[in-house]
Design a protein that fits this description.
two-stranded antiparallel sheet, single chain
Length: 441
């Protein structure tokens, strides 16, 4: 297919989506007086708000006071398919950004879901939350994917006037106090899990720094601003010194690993937050180098196996991508005036990725999104779209089990025959990405 036809197809799909968002989805009841201000939002903000309403109606169980699915899927556990804490908190973080864009529209949902998070709180480790709801003997505690992000969500809720609650600040203070115990005093870096001290990775260290800086921004709690900023800078310095690759990107951890989008994204965002406490030229230079690398389609945040450089996109998943989007948007907001060309590149990549996922990763039947950014791992239909976009017709499908139901009946089928499911982790990541992108686009 000629390139001009591909571009026409893409822009036709995107413009159709944009036009369709001018009115609320008929499946979502929105007060006309409350919905009218949404017309002033960008198309990405509007879609993020629409998706956030759908996330709540689709995944929240009033019976269990928990995010659930109808059948077993990636990230769920138990006979009623409840979500583990990581997905649970990503879903809440999506709702929080929707609340920031439309104050009052999600406040009751945020209060209900944050209260439900207390089911995960450890009774044996002060300030810690378990991967699954607490029971006697449960010590499955992750510093990063779970606890640091719980603190960040609580502090985001405290920041917003429509959801501010001093209990959220107290809980976040306790979590950050716990996070400080995860620093490896001998080798540096944050431990990933309480029982795995040898695993020190980028995202644990970056997100612990983000949580500390968010707490510092609202007064420092019981720890105090100087100690929190010192800790966060130590985290940032370790990541950039120890985990930077020759490409300028951030690798997964001290033991190597892939360059996931969230590692570089959260490193950028940490530098952005540090600037309000340390007005150093060096911070901007470090952030600029990371953003340059994150926007380079010949580097490994992009799917380099795609021969069409013009149509390369970030290679991993919606729930990782959201932290890269946050980092790039944070850079534009914090350092954009100092580095306008790099900021423009960041805005271009954020825009093209949001357009891409809205055009190709959204199910037109239920309005929800898949998990992956790579078309050829989702379905045969998505593979055909990949062929049209890239011309790479030699590509074979690499269908991922994580995109499909995992109930007993589904697992008996070949992967290609299993029905695609929509996950809280994927949709929470999409909603948060769209809403953060909408702040600058």
């Amino acid at each position: 297919m000629p390139l001009s036809s591909l571009k026409s197809r893409f822009h036709h799909a995107y413009n159709f989506l944009k036009d369709s968002l001018q009115a609320p989805s008929p499946s979502i009841a929105i007060d006309p007086q409350a919905s009218s201000p949404l017309l002033h939002h960008s198309v990405f903000t509007q879609e993020g708000i629409r998706l956030s309403h759908l996330i709540w109606s689709h995944f929240w169980s009033p019976q269990h006071l928990h995010f659930t699915t109808t059948k077993a899927s990636s990230g769920t556990i138990g006979d009623w398919n409840g979500y583990l804490l990581w997905a649970f908190i990503i879903g809440i973080e999506g709702l929080l950004e929707a609340e920031a864009a439309s104050p009052g529209a999600f406040s009751s949902e945020i209060h209900a879901s944050l209260e439900a998070v207390e089911k995960f709180r450890s009774h044996s480790r002060q300030g810690a939350y378990c991967a699954w709801t607490w029971f006697d003997g449960n010590d499955d505690v992750y510093y990063e994917d779970d606890d640091a992000q719980v603190a960040v969500a609580l502090l985001r809720a405290y920041e917003l006037p429509s959801t501010r609650n001093h209990q959220y600040l107290a809980r976040a203070d306790a979590i950050v106090t716990f996070l400080l115990t995860g620093w490896d005093q001998e080798r540096g870096g944050m431990r990933w899990h309480v029982s795995k001290p040898d695993i020190r990775n980028a995202c644990t260290t970056n997100l612990s720094a983000v949580a500390a800086l968010k707490l510092a921004a609202v007064g420092g709690g019981s720890i105090g601003v100087p100690a929190l900023v010192t800790f966060a800078k130590r985290c940032s310095d370790w990541v950039i010194t120890e985990l930077s690759e020759e490409s300028g990107l951030i690798k997964d951890g001290a033991g190597g690993g892939p360059t996931w989008t969230y590692n570089t994204g959260s490193a950028i965002y940490t530098l952005c937050l540090l600037k309000q406490f340390i007005p150093s030229y060096e911070l901007g230079e470090k952030a600029c180098r990371l953003v340059d690398a994150a926007c380079d389609r010949n580097k490994s945040l992009f799917d380099g196996s795609n021969p069409s450089v013009e149509n390369r996109y970030w290679w991993d998943s919606m729930f990782f991508m959201q932290l890269l989007v946050e980092g790039l948007v944070g850079f534009v907001e914090t350092f954009g005036d100092f580095y306008p060309d790099v900021a423009d590149a960041a805005k271009r990549e954020v825009r093209r990725h949001m357009e891409y996922i809205m055009a190709y990763m959204k199910d037109r039947n239920d309005g929800l999104y898949v998990r992956n950014l790579r078309l050829y791992v989702i379905s045969m239909e998505h593979l055909r779209i990949y062929y049209e976009l890239t011309g790479d017709i030699q590509r074979r499908a690499e269908l991922e089990e994580e995109e499909r139901w995992k109930d007993e009946a589904s697992l008996k089928l070949p992967v290609e025959k299993r029905e695609i499911c929509k996950t809280l982790l994927g949709n929470g990541g999409v909603a948060r990405s769209l809403l953060i992108a909408g702040r600058i686009l």
